[in-house]
Amino acid sequence: MRAVVQRVSRAEVRVEGERVAHIGKGLLVLIGVSRQDGEADAVWLAEKLAGLRVFPDDAGKMGRSVLDVGGAVLSVSQFTLLGDCRKGRRPDFTRAAPAETALPLYERVNAHLREKGVRVETGVFGAHMDVELVNDGPVTLWLDSRV
Questions:
Q1: Which of 36, 80, 93, 140 is catalytic?
Q2: Catalytic member of 79, 93, 125, 140
Q3: Looking at the whole model, is its pTM more than 0.70?
Q4: Which tens digits make up the pLDDT trace of 52-81?
Q5: Which of 6, 55, 78, 122 is catalytic?
Q6: Is 79 a catalytic residue?
Q7: What does the pLDDT read at residue 147?
Q8: Does residue 78 carry a catalytic annotation?
Q9: Contact 78/129 with Cβ under 8 angstroms?
Q10: Catalytic annotation present for 80
């Protein structure tokens, strides 16, 4: 699984002009599922996200997790993270898992985060979404369960 993680002061998702999810302080996580991914990848990603220390501690260093600061996760499915742009000018998405495979794994990440005590808001799987965020820092990280 691939994820782009952004530390945010706020973020929201709109579908057809209607706000469907929003958070204050926390992490906006864009998640892509590949054809090779399975349950272990979903659990790995959720564990990594719950414990990722990207929020400042008392010394001003990145020493606190989303759980430590009482933040939330806004989870958004994004198959385009698996796009291969090495050849030509149009991305190739053949590495992305089909929806019937990707949706349960995406939902597993969210469920595992909730089991860890993280408040999770989600976008709408497969929908055209408008994602708005204020990147705090800016802090942006890339995670991949296969690298």
A1: 80
A2: 79
A3: yes
A4: 999 999 999 999 999 999 999 999 999 999
A5: 78
A6: yes
A7: 78
A8: yes
A9: no
A10: yes
